[in-house]
Amino acid sequence: MKTLLISSLLFMLMETKTYQLTIEIKNIPSTKGNLFIGLYQPKNEFPVFGKQYIGKVVPVSGKTMTYTFKDLPQGDYAFAIYHDENKNGKLDKNMLGVPTEYYGFSNNARRTFSAPNFEESSFDLKKDVKQTIVLK
């Protein structure tokens, strides 16, 4: 009985497919600072950095960069990226709340007066995916 249970669990683990998400990030204004990349699932508070499924802080090394999330289970995801040029750990905004540092979202989703919602930015990861994002 134990052997059958262990064999069944091993088979289920082997059958779980994972995928990778590659993000090409363009229009990085300078090679100073870091990129904050937040990967979100529906249950996370999109696009609040610190409330994401996976968060990465990546030193900027060029005006175009690529980052890959590996071994992701199938599901709905969205991501948000901002360029923390001055390395203060936050997306700087002016007195009106308008970002003064470059940012972008999956699907290049944009709104005029607010961040896009999860549904506008989300995609179904059921195969390896590459998205090109232009920061603005």
What would you say this structure looks like, in words?
This protein is mainly beta. The protein has a single domain, classed as Immunoglobulin-like, CATH 2.60.40. The chain contains 2 helices and 8 strands, in the order H-E-E-E-E-E-E-H-E-E. The chain has helices spanning 2-15, 118-121, and strands at 18-26, 34-40, 54-59, 65-73, 75-84, 103-105, 123-125, 129-134. Strands 2, 3, 5, 6 and 7 form a 5-stranded antiparallel sheet that branches. The longest helix has 14 residues, at 2-15.
Topology, pairings included?
Blueprint: H1 2-15, E1 18-26, E2 34-40, E3 54-59, E4 65-73, E5 75-84, E6 103-105, H2 118-121, E7 123-125, E8 129-134
Parallel strand pairs: 1-8
Antiparallel strand pairs: 1-4, 2-3, 2-5, 5-6, 5-7
CATH superfamily: Immunoglobulins
**Number of distinct beta strands:** 8
Net shape: globular
Largest β sheet strand count, sense and barrel closure: 5 strands, antiparallel
**Topology pattern, helix = H, strand = E:** HEEEEEEHEE
As a percent range, the share of helical residues equals: 10-25%
Distance between the termini: 59 Å
Radius of gyration: 18 Å
Q: State the name of the first-level CATH class.
A: Mainly Beta
**Helix count, DSSP H or I runs of 4 or more residues:** 2
Percent of sequence in beta strands = 35-45%
Provide the descriptors you would attach to this structure in a database record:
globular, 39% strand, five-stranded antiparallel β-sheet, 136 residues, mainly beta, Immunoglobulin-like, three-stranded mixed β-sheet
